[in-house]
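User: Please run a holo structure prediction.
Assistant: Happy to. Please share the sequence and the ligand.
User: Here you go; the ligand is citrulline.
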Amino acid sequence: KKFNHVIVRRPCKAMVEGITSGLYPGKPDYELALKEHDAYIEALKQCDVDVTVLDADERYPDSCFVEDPALITRKCAIITNPGAESRNGEKDEIIGAVKKFFSDDQIEYIKAPGTLEGGDVMMVGDHFYVGRSARTNEEGIRQLTAILAKYDMTCSEVKLEEVLHLKTGVNYLEDNNMLVSGEFVTKPEFDKYNRVQIPEDEAYAANCIWVNDTVIVPEGYPAVLAAVQGLGYKTILVDTSEYRKLDGGLSCLSLRF
Ligand code: CIR
């Protein structure tokens, strides 16, 4: 078993004002978002992890997307410096939860002018792919690389052209299996993995999460579900319709470690 703990944060009412590209139109329905969040927590609990549920924080509309203000590795936790201005303060609110699991000398920080969001970081064992995006800059990647090196871990940069975060379009499922969509289908750095190409009309579902041999898949994407099951994984479906309206997916909603 690889993961023991998960941290999530309840969505706040202000989520309707969250950042959105408009790719998936409409305002989130808060009540439905809460129900979907309940189901997400239940799904995680079925994957043999304990789930820490943080209270909603109305000051930050996007604060349910806890993956972005922190990056948790096997050896250390890194508090990021989110590049989205309205989200930057989320970094100070995640520290308390991280400190329950890591001592002060195991907690590192990305500092200005470096910016980085966890959604841009994909862990493959002790190697981390980091997307250079509108949210994660060169200096943020430089600092991340130095921090990881200190703990004998490595990092390589992936340039993003179309998507918000790296993991919007590519996710590692363990066992050498990787879900890839859009611009990531042909990236040479992912040649060595067993790439499962996601059809364009199901691109959103490239964001699935592997949690201890179960893969949680967003509801409504039959081709992706069949592909993941074809790899031999047990699957759980969770509807993320209200988070999708804010460009958020399954990985964005938790820290898993
Ligand atoms: C944002 O634009 O920051 C949020 N509306 C969505 C964040 C999604 N998080 C992620 O991909 N890790």
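The two ends are 11 Å apart (CA to CA).
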